[in-house]
Structures are given as C-alpha cells and as structure tokens.
C-alpha cells in the first residue's frame, strides 16, 4: 500500500522566511555567516529520517529558488528510499549535483588568515 504525501507539507516554513539582521544598526554584527536548518520526518516505510545542513538563504538571493527545488526533489527521493540511513546531508548532496562555482557561491567559506 502506498501512501501519498504532499512534499510541500514536509518542508518547514522557517526555511523560506526572510532573515533580518541588525535592525536598529546600533551594534555591528557579522552577517556573512550562513545559517543551516534541519528537517526530521518519517519516510514511506516508517523509518525516522533526518536531513541536516539545509542552507537558509535570504529572499533576494539568486540561488534561493534553485535550492528550494533541489530540496523538494531531495526530500522526495529520501522519502521513497529504502536505505537504512537515518541522517542525510543536503550540503553533501548539493556538493555532488551542483557545479563547483555555484556551490562555492552558496556556501561562501571565508578563510581567516593567521587563525584569526
């Protein structure tokens, strides 16, 4: 017996909300840090599955729509999967499927000089 599940109901709403940093500008804050969310649900076979390292992007980010579509496809794939894995990394999935320059633009990791 197959159970039909709407993919949009599995995606948390906080993933697509806009992030607002430093509203009153009284204190300087670092805003180049990328935030991650995780998602936990049961797949079609009743196993508890967790997807970690889901990037939270601002609304005006050019890659937001692409990440949203890739996340929906990844969730659908994990939902139907029969593997015994309980934790999936969305970041590792994107590393495999995206071109490297696009991946670097999404996950900009600044290298600090002299361990600063």
Give the key terms.
116 residues, alpha+beta, 3-stranded mixed beta sheet, 4 helices, 3 strands, 31% helix, globular
| Biggest sheet statistics | 3 strands, mixed
Kindly report how far apart the N and C termini lie: 56 Å
Give the helix proportion (percent range): 25-40%
How many domain regions?
A: 1
Gyration radius, rounded? 17 Å
Task: Name the helix and strand elements from N-terminus to C-terminus, one letter apiece.
Answer: HEEHEHH
What would the average pLDDT be, to the nearest integer?
Answer: 78
Number of helical segments with 4 or more residues: 4
Instruction: List the uncertain runs.
Output: 4-24, 26-31
Which structural class is indicated by helix and strand composition? alpha+beta
**Main sheet: strand order:** 1-2-3
Tell me, briefly, the overall form: globular
Strand content: 15-25%
Would you count the extended β strands for me? 3
What this model shows, in words?
With 116 residues, the protein is α+β, with helices and mostly antiparallel strands. The chain has one domain (7-17, 28-115). The protein contains four helices and three strands, in the order αββαβαα. β2 (48-56), α2 (64-80) and β3 form a beta-alpha-beta unit.
Which helices and strands appear, and what pairs or packs with what?
Blueprint (H helix, E strand, L loop, with lengths): L6 H4 L24 E8 L5 E9 L7 H17 L6 E3 H8 L2 H7 L10
Parallel strand pairs: 2-3
Antiparallel strand pairs: 1-2
């Amino acid at each position: 017996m197959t159970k039909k599940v709407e993919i949009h109901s599995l995606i948390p709403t906080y993933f697509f909300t806009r992030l607002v940093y430093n509203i009153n500008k009284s204190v300087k804050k670092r805003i180049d840090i990328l935030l991650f969310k995780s998602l936990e649900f049961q797949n079609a076979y009743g196993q508890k599955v967790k997807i970690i390292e889901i990037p939270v992007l601002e609304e005006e980010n050019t890659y937001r729509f692409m990440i949203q579509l890739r996340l929906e496809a990844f969730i659908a794939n994990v939902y139907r999967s029969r593997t015994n894995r309980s934790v999936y990394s969305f970041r590792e999935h994107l590393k495999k499927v995206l071109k490297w320059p696009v991946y670097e633009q999404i996950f900009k990791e600044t290298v600090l000089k002299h361990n600063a």
